[in-house]
């Protein structure tokens, strides 16, 4: 991961640069959303379409050029790429949500309609935010190993065939659960104490909104500035399917369907030298062990004024 670019002092920063994933904007709905947002932002805003692999580099360039606000136009993966480039700078993150679920934007109170989101960006109310990191890679909502990265692989295939729809995303979950066969053998280390697990999924959450959306416990842990780490029991594919159904109806049971660990730092030791890791819907191959840590006050995000006044967008007490 690239080192953060040294930022100019805040008074020298000006303007808004909107970075759009080239994949976003190809369909008429997303193109119309971007057009509406740009009209609200006006002449102070500049739009850049870039390929997915070039998003972080484009955001770093904006920081180096003294741009005041860099807007991520896309889903949580696009926002994560821009956020990684802003770490340690005084350049603010704006969000124009164009993804399937938009958990980060919704958790910040940012409207999903493009004009409403653009008005929030134009108002410019900033709030500092904490982020999680695994082996140096930042994530906004969650990072996981096991069945969820496999779901993302299947989701890409389903999206190519049926389009980016929430029902398609749910179908990819069920399909992957039915096919999944190999649980992980891991050791989770916290403050020098290790525990062994045989599990299909380890899921480290940093979004209180996402947990509450699915009726899961652990939001208080996140508000305390820590990770909520979910470890699923090894119950085979029937157990996974049963868990998926209970998750859909918000009936997951602590101690039966998952174990919950609350920590601000942990290490996951793996049997294999490399592991596929999902961070906010993007896949990364990482060498073990996996080191999870909190990055305090990573940067500032632009949020609605009422969010700015009442709570931090990461859920931590203001």
From TrEMBL:
Keyword Transferase applies: yes
Organism taxonomic ancestry: Bacteria, Pseudomonadati, Pseudomonadota, Alphaproteobacteria, Rhodobacterales
Protein name per its UniProtKB record: Diacylglycerol kinase
GO MF annotation list: kinase activity
Superkingdom of the organism of origin: Bacteria
Keyword field: Kinase, Transferase
Xref: InterPro entries: ATP-NAD_kinase_N (IPR017438), Diacylglycerol_kinase_cat_dom (IPR001206), Lipid_Phosphate_FormReg (IPR050187), NAD/diacylglycerol_kinase_sf (IPR016064)
UniProt keyword Ligase, yes or no: no
Source organism per UniProt: Limimaricola litoreus
Stretches assigned to the DAGKc domain: 11-138
Gene3D superfamilies to which the protein is assigned, alphabetical: 2.60.200.40, Probable inorganic polyphosphate/atp-NAD kinase, domain 1
């Amino acid at each position: 991961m690239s080192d953060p670019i040294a930022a100019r002092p805040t008074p020298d920063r000006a303007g808004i640069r909107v970075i759009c994933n080239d994949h976003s904007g190809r369909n008429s709905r997303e193109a119309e959303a971007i057009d509406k947002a740009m009209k609200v932002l006006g002449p102070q805003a500049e739009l850049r379409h870039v390929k997915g692999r070039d998003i972080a580099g484009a955001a770093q360039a904006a920081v180096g050029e003294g741009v005041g606000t860099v807007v991520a136009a896309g889903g949580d993966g696009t926002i994560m790429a821009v956020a990684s480039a802003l770490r340690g700078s005084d350049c603010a993150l704006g969000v124009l949500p164009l993804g399937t679920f938009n958990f980060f934007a919704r958790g910040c109170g940012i409207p999903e309609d493009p004009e409403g989101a653009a008005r929030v960006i134009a108002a410019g109310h900033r709030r500092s935010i904490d982020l999680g990191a695994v082996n140096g890679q930042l994530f906004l909502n969650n990072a996981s190993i096991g069945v969820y990265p496999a779901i993302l692989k299947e989701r890409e295939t389903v999206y190519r065939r049926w389009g980016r729809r929430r029902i398609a995303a749910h179908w990819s979950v069920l399909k992957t659960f039915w096919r999944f066969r190999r649980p992980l053998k891991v050791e989770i280390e916290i403050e020098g104490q290790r525990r062994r697990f045989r599990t299909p999924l380890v899921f480290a959450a940093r979004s209180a909104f996402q947990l509450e959306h699915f009726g899961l416990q652990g939001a208080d842990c996140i508000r305390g500035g820590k990770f909520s780490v979910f470890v699923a029991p090894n119950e085979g594919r029937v157990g996974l399917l049963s868990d998926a159904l209970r998750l859909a109806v918000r009936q997951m049971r602590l101690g039966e369907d998952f174990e919950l660990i609350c920590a601000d730092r942990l290490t996951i030791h793996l049997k294999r030298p490399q592991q596929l890791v999902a961070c906010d819907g993007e896949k990364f191959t990482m060498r073990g062990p996996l080191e999870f840590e909190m990055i305090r006050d990573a940067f500032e995000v632009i949020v609605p004024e009422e969010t700015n006044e009442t709570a931090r967008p990461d859920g931590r007490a203001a």
